Model the fold of this input.
Amino acid sequence: MTQTVSIYPDRQALIDAAVTVMVDRIRAAVNERHSCAIALSGGSTPQPLYAALAHTDLPWERIHIFWGDERYVAPTHPDSNYGMTRRVWLDLVTIPAANVHPMRTDFADPQLAAADYERQIATHFGLAAGEFPAFDLILLGMGDDGHTASLFPHTAALSVVDRAVTVGDKDGQPRLTFTYPTLDRSRSTIFLIAGASKQAALAEVFAPTGDASTYPSRGIVPQGELLWLLDAAAGEKLAPSS
Ligand code: 6PG
Done:
């Protein structure tokens, strides 16, 4: 794993940099492998990034969009990560419908939805049983508590290492989430983090010693590159490496 920390003066500079990095990684994947599989994060931080990506000139027919986690709500629900991404980005570009792979949230049992998404991923990547996918790019955010995707502190999902997708738990509410093995197979992983409310958790994540079950973002150790893209409000106590 190669890890880089980049700190930008404000949120707009952060988003501008994230657009540049994502477009670069997407184009590199398409040039090398003729396709790019991306898993997106939800929440509020990436929304302006997604809105900006809608105005880039990318080979949409070569790009496949997945989600690294999802709230267990209908796509029309205001909390839906898929619904948000469609509104601000995917409905504005000519990406083929078959290239957009939302997590289904219409099973009565979220475990069935997790298994369904595993099957979708296995089909797309041509995986044998027990194999994990190697996404070209995974975008992650981090909560004020240090969670990432829907891997929340001291929850069972943190210990699931034999499945690619599992059911997370946010205060008793089910979420679908990639597991650590899936997240760690990515060729490029970007943490996009902004705001002073993230400072304390970031300090714990970057501390020389610590507990990933308390700060799950510590547990992300991808095989490929790990890029931390932070605004100054979030990262001012950290030392940038680029
Ligand atoms: C989600 C995300 C989650 C998010 C963090 C940060 O579904 O909410 O995937 O992991 O990235 O909670 O959220 P904000 O960007 O809104 O602070």
